[in-house]
Amino acid sequence: MRSPLDLPAGKGISRRSFFRFAAGASTLATLPILTEAHLAWAGQIEFADSNKGIHIDANENPLGPSEAARKAIMDIIPSGGRYKLDLSRDVAATFAGIEGLNPEFVMAFPGSSAPLHFTVFAFTDAHRPLVIADPGYEAPIWAAQAAGSPVIKVPLADPRGAATHDVKAMVAASTNPGVIYICNPNNPTGTTTNRADIEFAVANAPKGTILLIDEAYIHLSDVTPSLDFVKQGKDVIVLRTFSKLYGMAGLRMGFAIARPDLLKKMGSFGGFNAPPITALAAAKASLLDKDLVPNRKKHIGEIRNETLAWLTSVGYATTPSESNCFMLDVKRPGKEVIAAMAAKEVHIGRIWPVWPTQVRITVGAKDEMLAFRKAFQEVMSGSTAGLANPTLARLDEPVFTQLSSRVGA
Length: 409
Known about the structure:
Blueprint: H1 15-24, H2 36-42, E1 54-56, H3 67-76, H4 86-99, E2 106-109, H5 113-123, E3 130-134, H6 139-147, E4 151-155, H7 167-172, E5 179-183, H8 195-204, E6 210-214, H9 227-231, E7 236-241, E8 254-257, H10 260-267, H11 277-288, H12 292-313, E9 325-329, H13 334-343, E10 346-348, E11 358-362, H14 366-381, H15 399-406
Helix pairs in contact: 1-15, 3-11, 4-11, 5-6, 12-14
């Protein structure tokens, strides 16, 4: 299977040509892997220049890689002419050792988006649907639609409160689901699903169903990880990424953690998927830095909580996030506010169709969040009439259609 890096060579791949290629893909063998970056990109005003203004729209970490990770990248650059495939095994073994896992249960990927797609490809089909929370991360929906698999969306429980996965409803949604996808903490709400609910899903999902637990944001929260289910040999695949707390979104590094037989079936869709050696070096250095996770969790958490408290003080409700993103109810069509904020060069995240008056906000650096506050006050105290932009992604349509129509394909 191709990745975006395998798109046809030529004068370079533009944003337009990438999505035209995606729109024309008719088989899994030619389907690009979509990431949070692509989905955020599609929702921007006229593909806003990421070098201009403030971007708190793609759940990125402005801190970037740690100092230890940066040094590891510099140290390995002279070896950039080598494939060094042993590094993937070494980093997987390092992670396995820290987490008490058998190294055969860990597979390294360039990010967690590829194994997410491959899991949906491998374990869903026309008769075995994908079950997903709504609102939830859309990439699995894209993968299911490309595979010709039905998608069952289950509303979050207590949407004006805890906004957690309704796990019992998700388990009951189909008699024969292929994959039940739980993002914990959830993207876009930043809310968490408690351990008891995860245990219920593992114990009660129909036989042969894969529980895909996406822990991209796990390090930012106090939620209990799910790696022990893998150790127990359950039908569980856990995803981890270095894109969020570790600040390595552009480097592309992640893991799929599961029984070897599940990894083999899932990995058969991927072909050559070794992460770049710079990402591997940075990942190992990050894993070995014992202070990195608690320090960054505290730093990001303080900025998030200050922002949530301020929004509450000025009369706007948010989801009770434990992550680096949250949903904000702007009390009017969210697309209008996105456009108005973009006019002030503050780019915020997209809406989800089920919550049309809510927009996703990424927790950025402190100065970025102060700039967000200023622009938000100005926008919400004025009129946004006429600012809604028809070129915003139509997120109420299937993902495949929205991305192709976003560029006029």
